[in-house]
Amino acid sequence: MPGAVDDDEPPRRRRQRLKGRCCVAEEQDRAVAVEEVLDAGVVVEVVRDAPDNLPGAYPDDAVNNMVGVWLGGQVYLYLLHFQQGSIPASLRPGVALEQGAFLGLVGNSGVTLEPHLHMTALYYDVAPVGSGEVRTWSVPIEWEDVYLSATVEGPGELSPWATPGTGLWIDDEAITAD
């Protein structure tokens, strides 16, 4: 199951890089199990009970089932659109994750038209002292051994290292039309 990629960070943040492997595990009742994508992290936020949307419905006020993971320093990874109730109760803020930890099943919760996994890496920054503001920027993730495609149907091309841009699909196996 491929995931859409966002890349809208300010140019001055482009030096920040994260490295990871694609995260799709195995099919389970037509849903896809998601394993943690980077080496390790600490859970900072979990939403697990928002309802899934009907495919094709696009509710503007829908809530995402999600897992937020602190990766160290000022970098966080958010994984969105999990299936309602599929995130284990053992995943809660403060829990340290190891690579390969089961996070949940890909679903259709939140503002989305179809089931998919959305991953966003964020650089978290506190605005000037005394302002009380918090700022975040999306930062690119550099992936190892992934297939890239301009469409979900493919064909995909294997890349040993890639920092996908907006509008590309990534997968850990060849992207082909079914």
Structure write-up:
The protein has 178 residues and is mostly beta strands. It contains no helices and 14 strands. The strands form 3 sheets. Strands 8-5-6-7-10-11 form a 6-stranded antiparallel sheet, with no helix packed on it. Strands 1, 2, 12, 13 and 14 form a 5-stranded mixed sheet that branches. A 3-stranded antiparallel sheet has the order 3-4-9, with no helix packed on it. Strand 12 (141-149) and strand 13 (157-162) form a beta hairpin.
Name of the CATH class: Mainly Beta
Structural class: mainly beta
Shape-level CATH architecture: Distorted Sandwich
Topology as a string of helices (H) and strands (E): EEEEEEEEEEEEEE
- Mean pLDDT over the full residue set: 75
Radius of gyration: 16 Å
Number of domains: 1
Provide the low-confidence segments as ranges: 1-32
Query: What fraction of residues sit in β-strands?
Result: 35-45%
Shape: globular
Strand order of the largest sheet: 8-5-6-7-10-11
Number of strands: 14
